Amino acid sequence: MQSIRVTVQLENDKYTLRQVFKIVSKENLGSYSCSFGDEAKADFLLAGPQIGEVRDKPIVSYVGDSVVVKCKMDEKKPKPASWNWYKANGTDKEQIFYAAEPQKYEIKNHEWVTKLVVHKLTEGDSGFYYCEGVYAVSTTMGHVELKVITFLEPLKPFIAIIVEVIVLVAAILIYEKSQSKKNSAGGNETNADQTNTPTPGDNNGPEESSSTRQRKV
Amino acid sequence: MPPAAETKLGYTPPDGGWGWAVVLGAFISIGFSYAFPKSLTVYFKEIQAYFSVSYSEIAWVSSVMLATMYAAGPVSSILVNRYGSRPVVMVGGLMVSSGMVLASFGTSIIHLYLCVGVIGGLGLAFNLQPSLAIVGTYFHVKRPLANGLAMTGSPVVLFTLAPLNQFLFDCFGWRGSFLILGAIVLNCCVAGALMRPVKKSVKPQPKTETPPAASEEDGARSSDFQIEENQTESRCQGCAHRFIDFSLFKHRGFLIYLIGNVVMFFGLFAPVVFLAPYARHQGIDEYSSAFLLSIFALVDMFVRPLTGLLGNTKWIRPRIQYFFSFAVFFNGVCHLLCPLAQGYVGLVLYTVVFGMAFGMLCALLFEVLMDLIGAQHFSSAVGLVTIIECGPVLLGPPISGALVDAFGDYKYMFYACGVILSACGIFFFVMHFYNYKKLDEERKQSLAAERRTSEEAVKLKMSPDDKAAYEAEG
């Protein structure tokens, strides 16, 4: 820990300490603090910008499909000079790749956003991907998890729900058929009554009721 | 409640029994129709990145779906008039399902517009109109309550689909989610299976065999029908076999409803769309802003059945149009007062009141149309209404968005919506006051006319007997 001792004069009832530091490289970043004897202390943390928006939940994609993994820096902070992408391999071994395999990977950088496009996914492509924003004095890293699954995964709930629908529809229609069979079996006489009662009504009062009925209907 | 209204249908609606199962089916269908396009927005961010398109291009998927759903209204009405509600709803469910399954294999954004937007929208149209129509055939006495319950499907399904969609997306990505949603939406077929055609047992059979004769008789008796033409009459038996009843445009009540609704829809949905962005603009964090929408849906889903219950009471039912006018006006006032809301608590209060107002309006939206038109013509009426409403529904939010962008402030958008809705509320109130007066006059005239014709008929009946007696004597 480096230490600088400065003598300060009293100005307007205040002791003011102003120090200028040149931040040239990563070593210049870190924790700074100033103290006035035992009476006052202030701590400062100098760090490079941190990655803003990264998806915390895994991105899910399918075998044979392609996927876009995105890292975004907060637009209020300065643009990174360049971006790097790493794939986690094993515990903490990381591999750097550029356009070494152009068919497989595509890196698109645009100001605050970097996108990694992975084509022809296989299950081995699952895992953590690290995006690194590079500044003159610091780098910052974010990580996104990719999960590659086959189409069989969503197919299972899909088929389960289809079966449920078919069962329910069949049950409702069968219930209705059995209800109507009961009605027709026990209600044949009542049906005959229903068809008979309007007709005598029609015959008896065509003159008086038909004109009024025409009005109502 | 005028007792004569029941005989106008030609049969007595069950008002219960299997009707409640039909309400459940309508609940599911209406729920999916309204909530499904809104709930898909969860996937837009990833699909946008996947296809490398702008946000407005991906938002078009929802808009195309909504537009097709409204524009296909008349097609739906024609099919319901010919085949009844059940087959149309089941076909609709199959269509949305296949649209979503096809979309899950999509390779371009156009593919999504066609599968989700057009095919899905068409399927939803085949769910919405028939569900509304069939509730009217099963209920008369308890119809406002049944309608209120059926319309509650929209907030309930939205409330369930939103977190479900998020969960599916986290597990399966957008493709797998579309596939599973295709299966979930197939439950509309279950809803359709519940929509058993109502037994019109009181109506004698010959009516359905004489459509050409009925239309001729209609022409001959048109003068007799002048008096009742504007009332809720099932005045021709062959109506069920015609395609769309364009004579609705001469119906006074229908015109009031149509004009009022077209203007109203410009300002109705925009505040819902901009609620969360407005909250974020006020400095509230993303999760609390999204929570406002959940509060809105929760209030909405309790207010709708309550409104249905209220609308059924003997004080409100005869003058239910005034209740609807009040609901529209209430919405307007709510938006005019919104800019006064300060901080998160103020916004929560606004959301609760807005949820109440919106729920009241939606619960009554189709009930008042049924009240004006009657269940027989409702199918055609709702088809015509939705295709004409298509314009304001689609244009409303973008115009409001333009207002927000132009002034850089949300309050002018709220004022505009508030003014539109309040004006519509007053319009409805005044026009229905006039309409109720006219209807009462016409009812009195027709009762007097009936009394006259029955007296004449008695005289006519007397004369042949007199003649026979005369000839017998002579």
Automatic annotation (TrEMBL), chain A:
Q: Which residues cross the membrane?
A: 157-175
Listed Polar residues bias regions: 181-217
Region Disordered, residue ranges: 180-217
The source's domain of life comes to Eukaryota
Domain called Ig-like: residue spans = 49-150
Question: Could you tell me which PROSITE patterns the record lists for this protein?
Answer: IG_LIKE
Signal peptide (from-to): none
Pfam families reported in the protein's UniProt record: Ig_2
Name this polypeptide is given: Embigin
Automatic annotation (TrEMBL), chain B:
One GO cellular component from the entry?
basolateral plasma membrane
User: What are the recorded GO MF terms, alphabetically?
Assistant: monocarboxylic acid transmembrane transporter activity; symporter activity
Q: Which domain of life is it from?
A: Eukaryota
Which keywords accompany this UniProt record? Answer: Cell membrane, Membrane, Symport, Transmembrane, Transmembrane helix, Transport
Chain intervals for the UniProt region annotation (Disordered):
201-223
Concerning PROSITE patterns, the annotation shows:
MFS (PS50850)
- Presence of keyword tRNA-binding: no
Q: How does it sit in the membrane?
A: Multi-pass membrane protein
Segments spanning the bilayer are: 18-37, 58-80, 100-124, 145-164, 176-195, 254-278, 290-310, 322-342, 348-369, 381-400, 412-434
Where does it localize?
Answer: Basolateral cell membrane
Catalysed reactions listed for this entry: 4-methyl-2-oxopentanoate(out) + H(+)(out) = 4-methyl-2-oxopentanoate(in) + H(+)(in); 3-methyl-2-oxobutanoate(out) + H(+)(out) = 3-methyl-2-oxobutanoate(in) + H(+)(in)
Q: Where is the Major facilitator superfamily (MFS) profile domain?
A: 19-434
- PANTHER family, per this entry? MAJOR FACILITATOR SUPERFAMILY (MFS) PROFILE DOMAIN-CONTAINING PROTEIN, MONOCARBOXYLATE TRANSPORTER
Concerning its family, UniProt says: Belongs to the major facilitator superfamily. Monocarboxylate porter (TC 2.A.1.13) family.
Its protein name is: Monocarboxylate transporter 2-like
From which source organism is this entry? Answer: Solea senegalensis (Senegalese sole)
